[in-house]
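Hey, I'm writing a tutorial for new members on how sequence and structure tokens pair up, and I'd like a real worked example in the thread rather than a made-up one. If someone can provide the structure for the chain below, I'll link this post from the tutorial.
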Amino acid sequence: MINAPFLTACRDLLGRDHVLLESIDTDAYLVDQRKRYRGHALAVLRPANAAQVAALVRLCVAHGVPMVPQGGNTGLAGGATPDASGRQVVISLRRLDRIRQVDANNMTLTAEAGCLLANVQAAAAEAQRLFPLSLAAEGSCTIGGNLATNAGGTAVLRYGNARELCLGLEVVTPQGELWDGLRGLRKDNTGYDLRDLFIGAEGTLGLITAATLKLFAQPAARMTALAALDSPAHALALLNLAQRMAGPLLTGFELMSDFCLRLVAQVFPQQRYPFAHRYAQAVLLELSDNESEAHARDLLERLLSAAVDQSIVRDAIVANSLAQSNALWHLRESIPLAQSATGLNIKHDIAVPVSQVPAFLDATDPLVQRIAPGARMVTFGHLGDGNLHYNVMAPEDIDPDSFLGRYQSAVTAAVHDSVHAHHGSISAEHGLGQLKRNASAKYKSPVELALMRTLKTAFDPLGLMNPDKVLPD
């Protein structure tokens, strides 16, 4: 579909090099990270600053062109992929990649939406500060995308998710107006909290172009350990003990099943199974200490000793160097890579109350086995905030594609029903996008859905801002 007047206006605004039309240039923008969704676009547009984003939005409104905002395109729910119509444009925000300000005394950093998360972390470190949002895609995901999906990661337990790390936003509205809400204030009680409406909205209410983010003091030391346990209930007991003994020093608490560790060792032989014996579960825990390494090590060793004495922990490995700590974290971060190497899986990004994690697993694993006998459970995630990646892998003797085709629908429905029964959410940190927008309607009340639709209509009455995402049909 060709809209010549619109494309001419886009070229006049951005320059010909930043209005991409040929498939060799656009293909990477039109498919999601998991290759689950592939769309077509009228064009891929690459503005250089917030003023150009606003002008583009005004052009889209004038010509009735739907817009799909995109950051690093690392999302896992299809939220940044256009549909198949060829009518939509992808607005890539990658060129908005400046760190505008670091205010070390105010403990804030202002970054544009296209900044890579790793670059924001580095800018904070250069100012001897910490930006704690951390996740596997930090070398390729962008701050705008992190905020649009309210990303979580491995440090939510101590620092909170993306919403809690953001103080202010700059946003282009669906009418093409620029709202400057880049306030570095911890207290601002002057009306509706517009910032929180845009965070987690996946670009359906407006386009985030910059953010003012919270910084923290850099810890003097980090100590990491991998503990072996007999069950998720023991992992919960260890979490309670760690919170009691370490308090706010507890930064990370990651649960991994025995099968996850064996899968990593199978796919990546250089990463050996870490324990001398097999145990049902492992927990990777990390303390961040502002006093000293000696203080952190003493606390961690006392914590693990108490856990062993109380028959909570069966074995433990304490990292004695940064390299050993990185190796332990690499085990955890290699689980999704090992999954990908073995073929498609039935993936779920879910959250239940922390106290319900053992009960959820005890109830849901048998449900899955009844539907798909012999399925292998790849269960891991952020136990400290109740977020599990509850993934289901084909038995060894079944082709992964055939397994998905036969069982995905029934397995996903059973998992989501169990999540709901345990008072949880079917999307913890990846958003709804296209993947879960219709499924979410089953678990939201009519009042909640009506309020969401009222917001969408009020902000975007023409329905041009990332259509067919988040809200169900």
